[in-house]
Amino acid sequence: MTDKITLFWFRQDLRISDNPGLFEAAKRGPVMPIYILEEDILNSFKRGSASKWWLNQSLAMLNKALNNNLNLYKGNPKDLLLEIIQKNYIEAVFWNTCFTPWHLKKDDEIIACLEGKGIKSYCFNASLLWDPSKILKKEGSFYKVFTPFYQQGCLRSLSPRYPLPTPEKLILIKDNVNPTTLSDLNLLTSKKWYQSLALHWKVGEKAAQNKLESFLDQGLQGYKEGRNYPAQFHTSRLSPYLHFGEISPNQVWHAIQSKNLYPGLEKDVESFLRELGWREFSSYLLYHFPTLPDENFQSKFNDFPWEENKSLLKAWQKGQTGYPLVDAGMRELWQTGYMHNRVRMVVASFLVKNLLLHWRYGADWFWDCLIDADLANNSASWQWVAGSGADASPYFRIFNPVLQGKKFDPKGEYTCQYVPELKSLPKKYLFNPWDAPAEILKSAGVVLGQNYPYPIVDLKQSRLRALKAFKMISK
Fold it and tell me: Domain of 136?
């Protein structure tokens, strides 16, 4: 082999279409596509079990799309890149940037190392609509409130680039010396909990495109209001595909924006694009505030009197709180690796405000169970609900799971799907079964304390306790 090879390093961009780094690498000639499972990530930020399952499936689908030419490795990226370069005729290395602070720091080290070896490196943005380093206020500081960030920082800057096509000519090179297989990455746990996830999800770039098309055809109309109702199909469920880069935010943005031409969809389009803006804002906050996953954005919360109660935490995790909407959400999470966004806010509020347990406990559980676990989104969202984050929910906003259930799941379809032991209860008592007369409970086959728990906390008392605690640090 005498032809110079370009190395393309897949990361959170597991797709072939609209992949800027791959698109440019392919112009140079033969490309050796690689994926490195990094082993030197901080333990607390290693992928959770559900996320590992998705990654395993996604890599398998990507390898198939590349005609079995995806080269897999496991270890330290800098060391492995040098090793691959030494064994092959590598002229340059291309990759798409991961915008987490430690990835950026490692990238700088890798770029310097490659430069010292005479190897050129080229980095591109394939995961965000706007570069977080370039969205700043006039005086040069970064935004801490979403609305001005989105309206003044993002929408008034350059529009998101249009998606790139699949490379016209892609000559792929296999590293035949590398023995690593997908199973060697050990992404699947021995408990095989992940098997239930396969019943609910199809993984990969093609599945992502199909999901987008399905949403455009069936879910976008009525999205602005319908997205709040968990039993309705007005959410895109694109978050895991976006996280793993099986579809780009640019592809989604422009596909949604094209629907603006259809009368009656303007508000739905605007509402959905705004949600993509929230995704950008979370990444933006993590970029400018690297300690977001484990430190309060607002330092006054360092003095907040959080409780420590393992039994309450376990009841929340297992969907045994005695509050049907909360339990439905937590069981949906365990069974599917996903939870409707409205319900995410309810269960999060219940944990940090009614149970007064630290938001990190919730963030850790979501991190392990969510297939769309994204460090920026997870951290920013939990801090938002807790009140400790940027542009956070006010401390006195405490979601009432009974009222939320009656308002957003009025027929009980979502709740009964995941809490079937209550399906025979009249809807009047579905979200507050403790109020049902004994004869109603008996006829519905519900025995509180046996086949469905009593509430683990009183809503009114826990709300007053939370307000008192929040006022202590608000002085």
Answer: 128-163+205-288
